[in-house]
Write a structure and sequence with these properties.
By secondary structure, the protein is of the alpha+beta class. It has 3 helices and 6 strands; from the N terminus they run ββββαβααβ. A two-stranded antiparallel ribbon has the order 1-2. The longest helix has 11 residues. Its EC number is 1.18.1.2. This is ferredoxin--NADP(+) reductase.
Amino acid sequence: VLPPGINPKKNKPYGVRLYSIASTRYGDKMDGKTLTFTVRRAVYFDPELGQEDPSKKGVCSNYLCDATPGTPVPVTGPSGKVMLLPETTPEVPIIMIATGTGIAPYRGFIRRLFMENTEAAEKFSGLAWLFLGVANT
């Protein structure tokens, strides 16, 4: 995602922020024209001030969280490795572990398995396990 604005520390446009896509390859509307992201708004609570410090809020997460549905968002990519569900062994259990990677890619897997009318989804007969681990501080 390319957030709008100028980075005040570098006096240049903000750089790319990486997010995992949370929709399947066809998008949530099944039209191939949409992407869904799972985003947590990044804010910083200053214990000395007893309130949030707006100078330390996440530039891109706040941009995405403040956007309304249908807002065009400039994106680039994909980058990284592609993860696909197995289609040749529909009886094998699928174990998804979301810790440092977040839950976003697994949202797409679950939608593909249980909500999309695909041959792979119709044949799937295994169990799907999703484990979510989060920091507790």
